[in-house]
Amino acid sequence: MSPEPSSALLLGVCDYPEHVSPTLWPDFARQQRELGLSFVRLAEFAWSRMEPRPGEYDWAWLDEAIEVAAAEGLKVVLCTPTAAPPAWLVQAHPEILPVGRDGRVKAFGSRRHSDPASPVFREHSRRITRALAERYGQHPAVIGWQTDNEFGWGDTAQTYTPAARSAFQTWLQARYGTLDALNAAWGNVFWSMEYSDWAQIPLPGQAVAACSPSHTLDFMRFTSGVLASFQAEQVEILRDCSPGRFATHNFMGFFSAYDHYELSRGLDFASWDSYPTGTLTAIGEWQVMEPEVAVAYARTGHPDITAFNHDVYRGLTGHGHWIMEQQCGQIDWAPSNPLPAAGAVALWTAQAWAHGADGVAYFRWQAATMAQEQLHSGLLRHDGTPDRGYAEVQGIDTAAYPLVPVVNRVALLHDYDSLWAYNAQPHAVGMNYWAQTFAYYRALRSLGVDVDIVHPDADLTPYAVIVAPALTVMTPERAAQLEAAATHAHVVFGPRTALRQHSGRAQDGGGAGPLAGLLGVRPLNFDSLPAGLTQDVTLGGSTHAARLWAEAYAPQDTQVLATYAGGPLDGHAAVTRRGPVTVIGAHSDTLIQGVLGDVLHAAGIEVTPLPEGMRVSRRGDHTLVQNWTAETVTWQGHVLLPVSSLFIETASLLATPPERV
Amino acid sequence: MSPEPSSALLLGVCDYPEHVSPTLWPDFARQQRELGLSFVRLAEFAWSRMEPRPGEYDWAWLDEAIEVAAAEGLKVVLCTPTAAPPAWLVQAHPEILPVGRDGRVKAFGSRRHSDPASPVFREHSRRITRALAERYGQHPAVIGWQTDNEFGWGDTAQTYTPAARSAFQTWLQARYGTLDALNAAWGNVFWSMEYSDWAQIPLPGQAVAACSPSHTLDFMRFTSGVLASFQAEQVEILRDCSPGRFATHNFMGFFSAYDHYELSRGLDFASWDSYPTGTLTAIGEWQVMEPEVAVAYARTGHPDITAFNHDVYRGLTGHGHWIMEQQCGQIDWAPSNPLPAAGAVALWTAQAWAHGADGVAYFRWQAATMAQEQLHSGLLRHDGTPDRGYAEVQGIDTAAYPLVPVVNRVALLHDYDSLWAYNAQPHAVGMNYWAQTFAYYRALRSLGVDVDIVHPDADLTPYAVIVAPALTVMTPERAAQLEAAATHAHVVFGPRTALRQHSGRAQDGGGAGPLAGLLGVRPLNFDSLPAGLTQDVTLGGSTHAARLWAEAYAPQDTQVLATYAGGPLDGHAAVTRRGPVTVIGAHSDTLIQGVLGDVLHAAGIEVTPLPEGMRVSRRGDHTLVQNWTAETVTWQGHVLLPVSSLFIETASLLATPPERV
Amino acid sequence: MSPEPSSALLLGVCDYPEHVSPTLWPDFARQQRELGLSFVRLAEFAWSRMEPRPGEYDWAWLDEAIEVAAAEGLKVVLCTPTAAPPAWLVQAHPEILPVGRDGRVKAFGSRRHSDPASPVFREHSRRITRALAERYGQHPAVIGWQTDNEFGWGDTAQTYTPAARSAFQTWLQARYGTLDALNAAWGNVFWSMEYSDWAQIPLPGQAVAACSPSHTLDFMRFTSGVLASFQAEQVEILRDCSPGRFATHNFMGFFSAYDHYELSRGLDFASWDSYPTGTLTAIGEWQVMEPEVAVAYARTGHPDITAFNHDVYRGLTGHGHWIMEQQCGQIDWAPSNPLPAAGAVALWTAQAWAHGADGVAYFRWQAATMAQEQLHSGLLRHDGTPDRGYAEVQGIDTAAYPLVPVVNRVALLHDYDSLWAYNAQPHAVGMNYWAQTFAYYRALRSLGVDVDIVHPDADLTPYAVIVAPALTVMTPERAAQLEAAATHAHVVFGPRTALRQHSGRAQDGGGAGPLAGLLGVRPLNFDSLPAGLTQDVTLGGSTHAARLWAEAYAPQDTQVLATYAGGPLDGHAAVTRRGPVTVIGAHSDTLIQGVLGDVLHAAGIEVTPLPEGMRVSRRGDHTLVQNWTAETVTWQGHVLLPVSSLFIETASLLATPPERV
User: Fold this and answer.
1) Which residues, in sequence order, are CB contacts of B365 under 8 Å at separation 6+?
2) Taking burial as the number of CB atoms within 10 A of a residue's CB, which of B124, B150, B357, C518 is the most buried?
3) Do B429 and C336 lie within an 8 Å CB cutoff?
4) Is the same domain home to A494 and A374?
5) Same domain for C284 and C252?
6) Where's the Glycoside hydrolase family 42 N-terminal domain (chains A, B, C) (predicted)?
7) Which position has the higher pLDDT, B422 or C291?
8) β-strand pairing of A465-468 with A521-528
9) ipTM for the complex?
10) Residue C448's domain spans which residues?
């Protein structure tokens, strides 16, 4: 419980010295050190200060800011400033402005007003990155780099500029070689969408009605690649000029606009920006919880929502991620922005660590006194006094949070191709890739199980149970990998599994294509249920009500575990099992929890059903219990105050098999 | 009950052989024949296959597809492929792309990406139509033609291109002769909207706020005419090249964007595409039924909604319409897309026949394995196995559905001028032309009455009762026709009757203008009721709550049947009658049902009040009873299983006079 | 109670003789006189009749219309017709069309299709104004002028044309002198938004995400100034050509798009257009009343909503305003448009007078029989018969409404800078400047208190109680003025007071900046509460539930009156008082009412708590009691019929101190 300091959780803060008078800098640095912080993140968005006029650099202020921090022993994470191109660059090259799906140019005046497909913008991105990296790359206080900031924020990952269209056509030509191949892959015979010239191909989303999902899917892959190469150019320069420092990027929660695995390649680890109260409202439309439940979590966010993202971002590189921006007070971008509960900042920090975070930077040091984020809190108020989060950070003993590895035996598979293909045709209000995937994750967490969220093509040998909630896109290679996994692990699949080929088309011959053999079922029908309409499922003696989605199967030498009762699917299989493989076709939280509980039990994974709002997380041999509710909970002899954490002996956990369903 | 096969309902299917391997074609044709289908609809959207490059035709595949069908004795309905212009045409002539009301060009990538007002597009439409008709027009298997597909789909009937604006100005000049006449007709003195040059006239809908309803009304007439002439050019070519074959078009349910009577002129009969579960959700905003009622019909659609459209489309030409696309499984375009109930496909087919359909083509043979409609079902699944609808089609004995005429004594009047004028200024959330018209239709159907939906200028002599729910536009000629009708029939009018002249202006002198004498009332006030506010009406001893709309009248030598009680209209007439003419001013389902019941009774029309979800339809001397609910119903000694049909002896119907109101 | 006629309320009507046949004019004028009207408003929107072709004026019709009115002794208010530029002007100069925030040009076809920043449009505005004023400026019947009509209607106050952008840049340069000053004032170091060239500055609202509130705030000031100078040009011409006549403008209720104080400078008095049933629905999103309460007022509007606007518009110039358009039947622009209750027109007229109106013009004489407003009522119906409002106007004895001054001792401070700054970042769904300000006004009115709504920089010496609900923007000068006011008056402040400097930035040093000393509190935190989440406040023995907003303070030598209980603000001050200054941080109707009651009592202002829907208003020594509900109310011995008014002796009012809270 008392590791070497160097191996404990790093705390830091996002600071913008350029926003305040330099006379405050020394005091701020001293306070930061005294608060137990060990690093500051600097220079995000500061391009107009680094290069006030074209080619005219001003480093004096940043030199001083870094020296002041270093003087207090603080380390520095620097950011490439490309998320906020300066006005003079836009004036000289208005063609770098992004264009939205609606065809409107997005003007200067906030941030991310640039098209990553623009060769001109790319050139300036490389230039400012090199200038910055050359200046500070080898400074002893500088420990690492953040590339840009929140790629895709403000719906900017997909741009609709002439540059993007032309690059998309080139990308397609490189990928498909011939138009015949592209027309076949996209199924362009449908509605006479066949192309006879690469230059005919438009960007999707601007037609009379929805474009082909294959068109959309390839556009998402293309734009993801554009951002990945944009970042790779920066990383290459940073590696060149700043050896021995880490490179990371600060992603966002539940973000769909690019392949985060692709963008993490070449980074040392992934980071993300965690704003639990905001993310709670952002997913309101998913129908994952009743509105009154969402209100109950208004001041903490929901434990599984935050944990899910930690597990996603840890999984991108497979080890210790960072929280590059950690909410430490109220935010300013949700429809309403309630104050966090007392204890929430400590709760979030402890959870981040327990789910594998090695570093946590609070956003931000002092609340901004100007511009767009004036109503967003920091550790200090506008008047310089410590705000509510400050005291909570002060109370954190990082020694209690050693940087030991997270080792889990349960994997949940996650894949952006499947996400894009699923969400291009959700077919049911309230359903989408994230909602379906999260339902399985939440069920696992409610059973007290720790989860690795990994890519389906990753190494799956460490896992005893593999849950694939929504692997819509299935290739022969991926099917082979899953067949191999089933030789050592229990594998659970959700609805729409393997519905599509890599191209986004249905499998040749229908059904689950290359995965059909493993699943042991032939899909019969899927039922998309509007609000108010449910479909009963009987599993053993219990009945569960599927909502939003119900999928039925013809078993092929396969055991039927649950059957639909009543309705158009009456009597058909809802849950099947053949050996280690389980298929769940009905969307019901209780059914999913029950089936997963059985599978975990069969795999020898300890199951501990937990009350709502209470969660257990393990890192190494440390077991953290948290109560995210506003009430004191007594559980297995432990008293958990509202919004609090507790370390317990893992052995003390009573492993209760879930109610047999 | 066993007519000659040639005089029984024709069943067919929409097939897209170009979507699958030709090796499957012979088996498909054999299966189609064995299923009892007698025709296939082919070549819809197949322009890029017919003419892969400008002027370079490829007929080989279609030759073979037709021969394969013919070899099994199947007849063929061919489509002009103009709903999906190929990419090369758009590349060569980008000006043919449609522009939306928001000024944005709608790009290539789905379908209907063309402006029917474009002379260039028109030229290519004629060219491909002639090439196709010359090739197949006299093929013995080809029995008829579908022009284009679903005119106006994707909000494309109204385009805002320079070509459309220029053509609109020319059309206005031809219609009005002088600007003085146009300025007077539109009332352009209002807000200084007077024009002094034809070139000043803009397209409506792009101004600071709403344009004049007269401006909008003429724009709807103009665009309707553009589509009508677009189609007429195709029909002329088809008549020329393909004598003896029918020409039809597949319209859509509750579609407002053009005058369907105008577009039916020159066709042999009208067709429509019936998707009962989708149409149910599409009219959700009309407030015609409570949300929980809509959920109850989620798997069948509502009987009156589907029947209403059958009666509209039969009425366009006055005889046997076709269902050119009949839902036979779940669709993919509603917010949620539930599976149809068991029995629904048979139920829909029987209803279509009972309401006068001579042909029904299921959409589609095999579910598409690619592109936009992958999640839309067909008779076969992706994997080629028969889907749920297949067995229902197999069970249909078409001999039970002879093609005898539908003869009704009750007419409901329907007119697109009134629709456009009404909906340009609905004045009350939840009210529109369709909702008001449907309320009267539903009341008639709930009384067991069969209805012809006809144009007000049609021959009304066959009818004993004529219901005109929403004839907002009234000309002297139309008034004379209604006066003549009242000499032999009972006539019932709803609110807003005759509110406007042909120009969309209020009647000169106010009130009902030329119809005032017939109505026998002077309108006092109309009340537009927000949700939660109702207005009581007393009719005899009963009280009814008007919602959404209440209109009061000063009777002129006219009997007052119902009076408003309380509220601003207290004591004023809500329902009046003078001789054969009844005026209903209050929007209340129970009031409408009661008054109509009385009128029907007085006219000697048999009235059979029916339980919710149960409906009776007559064709010739065949009486079909249907239960559209999920429960078994026992009614007048007949046991009706859920979602089922039954033929009964008409004599067995107990004609119950409705509760006297 | 029987003043000279010349000193009684003037009634008039908006008439559009050009909409009807001149043969009707003499009868109309006679009827108007007989109805007791003394003036008509003419020529609004009539540009195309005044100048049918460029430079070709036609005055004959207007000459006659004025003579016909004058012949019956009616006075005339003329309007400059610039709210509806004619088609020939738009054709010749399409660049005068406004452009919306979405970048789309707003076309001809309704009204207000012009950019007030366009030099070309300005030139034509001056030209037609001079021609009209020269023609009629000295006509003896003409008593005054209305400039234009409803500036900003249809979201046209802010235009996004190249002319507007260029003028904005020029305006900024004049205001700030240097880009350094502008960059500092806006805080442009944030997100690298610093400008190095004036030409770089875009219009706000078209960027990737929200622009800086300072950017928005200056844009609102700029566009307000554009309209003010546009109007000033007209007023200068009117003064020149039409001496001795008044100049006014007809504003709209709760309108935010410009500074109404700025636009009233140079006018003789302000007018506004009062549509009580419409305004009720327009504020639906504010969450100021439950939906069922809104339904209860559907036929009258809410008394405080209408009174609030009367008090705003009286306060613009500090004396007798006019209602230039008074609803006298159902309107046509709300989602639903219920008929007014019987008595509502008389009720509204009496209230207008009691709140200081000197003139009321009903809108409109006869309902329009054409174009956009056909479904909007007038005093006469389409058929020329008197509509429901006519009889009510007939019953009004204007002698009972003498034009004595309104003298109040309670002021409510209102300021458009604060409005814009607040609404640029509302931070909580349902909260905005108007909703917060209105909550305080409503509380005062529910206590039977009459209120002057005045600008914070106005003369505050007449007041014993000053309520400043939402003075977000605070300058040193304004703070000094409030400190001076506190020497003679009790002053009450609401949440967010003094949060920002004039630039829209937070105060230097945070907190309330220059007002901190007077408030005696240091702000700790604000809590933004989503629907369903409340925050308890204890005040004495009572508990109140704050909703939407809760703000906590650290008192500095200041008494804490109320404290938060539970939640993140537990134990912190919610209401404080130091001497004459009270600060209320929690948004709770009952709390606000209670605290204000105490303050009024302490200030010696008579307090009379009133039942919902019943209100008392005083003008001079006349006390008017009104019942706005649909039920008869007995109160203090007075019987008030539904929707009715009563004069009482002020002495008979029982001044009840509100429940001590």
Assistant:
1) B13, B14, B15, B16, B28, B32, B40, B378, B379, B380
2) B357
3) yes
4) no
5) yes
6) 16-395
7) B422
8) unpaired
9) 0.96
10) 410-602
